[in-house]
Amino acid sequence: MFNRVTIVLAALLCYLPLAAQQVQIYPSNWWVGMKKKQVQLLLRGDQFDAVNAQVTVQYPGVTLNGTHTFENNRYLAVDITIADNAQPGLVPIKYQYKKKTYTLQWPLEARVGKPGQTHAVGVTSKDVIYFLMPDRFSNGDPSNDKVPGLRDQSLNRQEIYDRHGGDFQGIINHLDYLQSLGVTALWTTPVLENDMPNRTEHGYAITNHYKVDARYGGEKMYRQLSDELHKRGMKLIQDAVYNHMGSYNFLVKDIPSKDWLNQWPTFTKTNAKDQTLFDPYAAPSDTKLMSDGWFVPEMPDWNQKNPFVANYIIQHAIWYVEKFGVDGIRIDTYIYNDLPFSNDCNAALEAEFPNITLYGEAWVNGTANQAFFAQNNIQTAFKSNLQGVVDFQLLFSGIIPALTQDFGWNTGVNQLYATLSNDFLYKDPTRNVLFLDNHDYNRFFSTVKGDVAKQKIAYQWLLTYRGIPQLYYGSEILMKGETNPDGWVRLDFPGGWAGDTVNAFTGKGLTDDQLSMQTMVKQLGQFRLRATALQTGKLMQYVPKEGLYVYFRYDDQQTVMCVMNTNKNARPVEFARYVDRIGGFKTARNVLTNEKINIDSDRQIPGMTMWVLELEK
């Protein structure tokens, strides 16, 4: 029986005599006891004659089913089946090149941990997600700021598009801070290798799917980050990019065959019209342009209709969940993927990891448009199996107009009320992820023009509404920034670098407003950790009246009343109006101030204020 260390060391030793051949295998390893037993290996070598390779596999419990060649003779697909009784070890894959026989040793490993218990446990409405960019959060290990051999050697914190040096160690160093906010899950921008010439700070142009970027600390530190999170009962969310890759990816520079990409005579940009995917009157050419058009020339578009491409992506998704102990996956640019492929990928992940959470970026206009991409109650030809989406509608058509528009019949907070009423379109709207801002959109504090009172209302809403709340790093201390240019929403978290004069982790140098905001988020975040009504309770909302919006979160153990006054002036809270939910209760405790309120008579709530009240009998 081989243990994990033995396998890795043996694999390295076995590769050394074959350096001249430079043959790589993807996926780089697999595990015994997986539900996915049929694996398609992709072999690639600079001096590899796939047509004449004559591959053989002789290992107990591993069967060679067949091989496939491509236009590019340096690639070969090898189909194998791993039996239930297969044991961990090094699987010898033999091939012939110029009448010589060579042997590749492919690691078949024992699983570490148990899905659903130690990893792949899922992220639910009980959780609070903290979203950050590793390069911009904290530099815990300056030795990896620049890595020889990578194309991007920039390191300048004064330039918004250069690398700044943040890494996994920096995140690990500040997990206490995340927990102080009530955070239970961490989502980062992609961590896989981005060996592009510039703009590598965001991570969305992957050049090698089987390498973790060394500038963050590489594979070892990513696994350590996962382990440190799990030790604390926290969860890890991976940002998956299925739609495209970086133009310097070896699969682009040395493409297996032309149909691995959605090819056009010249660069052709997607029309970004999601309507073409469900519009009963859509022109087929418009639908094709939506899914097969590229984002930018630097990010070639995968052809997911190609079964070899689909296998490569799906196997990789399963691989990193098992390899790094991932609990949930946020799927980038979900609406631009080939939708049948997306369903296949989701189904494969759920078959292997039944508790895993999958949610997609669906940046669209309209709740029906958004619901189309998730499990829904809409009668359409295509039915998505995606569990949930990032809820852009409750941002753009909900909380933003609630706090930036005057109240009217269909303006102001009435839009928030109306948007939530469309939840009947989803199979389970509580699996949607709520947010106020992210790396692609204006900081919320800039959206509300630096109004601290509005920012506080927004965070109280975020942490008490239905769904899974997601915080964006730094907005809890009133970081500003707009997307023109987009780098201004991706600035460094203060205190993450040695010598920072302001340290938001300790509070040093923060203004009174920043400290007040941060303290409020911590208070409410900690309350949410033990508030079953906010985690899994039902929601009841009342029609807004003159800018006053009231909703309840409740279960058998707890009732929380949320009173949002978006009017500039004080408004009366007529408790008797909410008899459906306050019957049997006598008082209410303000969660943030601890003030007790008798609810047998009306009270005035100040202008632009929100109360989160725990009702008491």
UniProtKB/TrEMBL annotation:
Q: Is Hydrolase set as a keyword in this record?
A: yes
Q: Name one Pfam family in it.
A: Cyc-maltodext_C
Entry-linked InterPro entries: Cyc-maltodext_N, Cyclo-malto-dextrinase_C, GH, GH13_cat_dom, Glyco_hydro_b, Ig-like_fold, Ig_E-set
**What SUPFAM superfamilies is this protein classified in?**
(Trans)glycosidases, E set domains, Glycosyl hydrolase domain
Signal peptide residue numbers: 1-20
Record keywords? Glycosidase, Hydrolase, Signal
Query: Start and end of every Glycosyl hydrolase family 13 catalytic domain?
Result: 131-528
GO annotation terms (biological process): carbohydrate metabolic process
Q: What is this protein called?
A: Glycosidase
Q: Which molecular function term from Gene Ontology is one that the record holds? A: hydrolase activity, acting on glycosyl bonds
Q: Do the record's keywords include Chaperone?
A: no
Organism, as annotated: Chitinophaga skermanii
